Amino acid sequence: MSTALGDRAADNLRFIRDTMARAGAFTSVSGSGMILVGVLGILAAVAAPPLLIAANPGEFIAIWFLAALLGGPLSWLMIRRKAARAGQSLLDGSARRFMLAFAPGLAAGAVLTFAFIAARQISLLPGTWLTLYGASVTAGGALSVKPVPVMGALFIVLGAVCFFVPPFVQSILLAAGFGGLHLAFGFHITRHYGG
Questions:
Q1: 8-17, 39-48, 51-60, 96-105 — which one is most confidently predicted on average?
Q2: Cα–Cα distance between 15 and 87 in angstroms, integer?
Q3: Residue 13's pLDDT band (boundaries 50, 70, 90)?
Q4: Which segments of the chain does DSSP mark as H helices, in order?
Q5: How far apart are CA 79 and CA 128, in angstroms?
Q6: What distance in Å separates the CA atoms of residue 65 and residue 152, rounded to the nearest whole number?
């Protein structure tokens, strides 16, 4: 009888632990990963100066694509590192919900990027990138630590402004978002949320 009671108690504890893990916030957003992505954003902005978007749109797109292709995996590696230190799984619970909320905005951004390139509407890219990245960060951030959705909202604001300013200003806003916001929030998260 006591063995059955012990097994039932263990099952109940396992259920409670799993439920809490699913309900908890995704705390493995990496501030140091954001800092590295911010540095990439600044480097991309330097490599693609403000007048390049009009003078050589192909080079402008290639530089920012490269930054995105490097930044995504770099950020993921830093998130994995932080999650491993915290003993947090990236395959279930809050991490899974975070990724499910984060991914649709990125997918929409990719689709619209190729549509705008095909239509030769390059001036729509900076606003689209900032707005949809911000939407992704805000959606995923709703399941994370408090600064993350705030950062996402600021990306959306920068993206909205991009649609009403000349292309050279759009490049500056890209630098402010993908460089400046990542650096500022990365330092804040590193300091206040454990790296």
A1: 39-48
A2: 18
A3: low
A4: 2-23, 31-47, 52-55, 57-86, 93-118, 125-141, 147-162, 167-174, 182-192
A5: 25
A6: 20
Report angle CA 56, 161, 66 to the nearest 5 degrees.
Answer: 40
Q: What is the pLDDT of residue 24?
A: 56
Residue 42 backbone dihedrals phi, psi, to 5 degrees: -65, -45
DSSP 112-158: HHHHHHHTT-GGGHHHHHHHHHHHHHHHHHTTB-THHHHHHHHHHHH
Cα gap 92→87, rounded to integer Å = 12
- Both structure tokens of 146: 């408090």
Burial class, 134, CB count within 10 angstroms (exposed 0-12 / middle 13-18 / buried 19+):
buried
Predicted local distance difference test score (pLDDT) of residue 15: 58
The CA–CA distances, whole Å, from 188 to 104, 117, 145, 167, 185 equal 26, 35, 11, 30, 5
Reading the block at residue 51, the tokens are 């007048």
Percent residues over pLDDT 90 in the chain? 59
Whether residue 150 contacts residue 137, with contact meaning beta carbons closer than 8 Å, is answered with no
Q: Which of 7, 116, 9, 105 is nearest to 61 (CA)?
A: 116
pLDDT digits (tens, 9 = 90+) for 91-144: 777 778 888 888 999 999 999 999 999 999 999 999 999 999 999 999 988 888
Structure tokens at 42: 């600044």
